[in-house]
């Protein structure tokens, strides 16, 4: 035997193995990235085939065959991965769709039988543990609470139960679901809500300087200190409280100081009023002190006194008041002594005390220039002291709105007013009724329409009975309502007893106009021309009367 036969046989085996490797180029190329270590081992074994013993060569062949088998398995796995990755998911179709992937090589290897493994690994099942059976959660029963039916007005007040729905809770002991609870709510059994208002005091105090000119009282100046949020119990604790505005403020009371010196009339007064004397009850209290000094044509009169009253507001429009007052009346400078013995007896000081009750109903839409509503007042007074007599007065004013513009301006109104009064026999002359002038009967001088003692140039003594009336129609002249025109007729009489005499019944129609200047105050300037058509024998006429005021 040729000693080199084994070696030759080994060469043929290597040659056959090389042929096998040449037939599988694709396998080795596809596997160079997935498993580069077996390919490198094959190349290393190929370079070292020659020069080894048959036994070692046989071992190397076994290694080569094992590497080839492993390479075949890896190649198959890589091909399946590429096929799966080439599929795309279609969310609007039936799932994954096959996409065409260009092959890297013209010929793809095909295998008739996939490689198989004899010894597959075995796994042991995980240990089993016996757990207790799962318990089903049963929620606690919901309490059946009957909500009481509500009625209005509520019959009872107190706690009531409110059922808490799942996910709700209220402050207090109420809790959210689970569990479901209840919590008492202390509210009346009606739909109510708390209203919280945060505010700050506005400007309630003011100092006014002004003046007035009219045909009845001449020229008058005016200085007024007015506080509408006064507090008589809040005295200052320091000078800073006095000058910072915190002293004597905060209780909603009214305090007013007024000084009005004039050419023929002086007035000084102090007023205090509490609209709610006992908390929030509609009971009011007012107190005032005054000093009047009036220089009439026939005598001078000075009054010093005080008044106190309690009021009760029955409705927002209806009120009732009772009051007492006392004053000292000083009569001096009689123009014609001896003409009126009654007036001569009043010279000097006279004490007058009165008690009165007043009922007032006021529905006017504006106290200065009303266009709708009415004003009614009845007053009864009993005097005592140096004079003892009874007196009652009735005043009624009503207003009708005839037309106005769409924005509420340009109002045309008709008004009617009447004043009726009677006083007892012991009424002193300075408490008689007088008529004539801007506020009573236009077309006559101030106190110029009434009984006279002493003839044509005698003393105007007034009377114990009066009935005065006025009808007026007011209309706009300009579009801004700054100028208004009036047509009126004043009529009535003042007598020394209750009677109506055609010889002394006064009638005075006339015309006039009103000028509204906001810078001069809320009251318009008034200019009226009246022409008496019926009058008394000794009446003093005045065709023109006016009223002008300025308040800043």
What is the element layout, followed by pairings?
Blueprint: H1 5-23, H2 25-34, H3 36-47, H4 54-85, E1 87-90, E2 95-98, E3 159-163, E4 182-186, E5 205-214, E6 218-230, H5 239-244, E7 253-260, E8 265-274, E9 283-295, E10 300-313, E11 318-332, H6 341-344, E12 348-362, E13 373-385, E14 389-403, E15 412-423, E16 443-444, E17 452-453, E18 459-460, E19 465-476, E20 483-495, E21 506-515, E22 525-530, E23 541-542, E24 544-551
Antiparallel strand pairs: 1-2, 3-4, 5-6, 5-24, 6-7, 7-8, 8-9, 9-10, 10-11, 11-12, 12-13, 13-14, 14-15, 15-19, 16-23, 17-18, 19-20, 20-21, 21-22, 22-24
Helix pairs in contact: 2-4, 3-4
Kindly summarize this structure in a few lines:
The chain has 552 residues and is an alpha+beta fold.
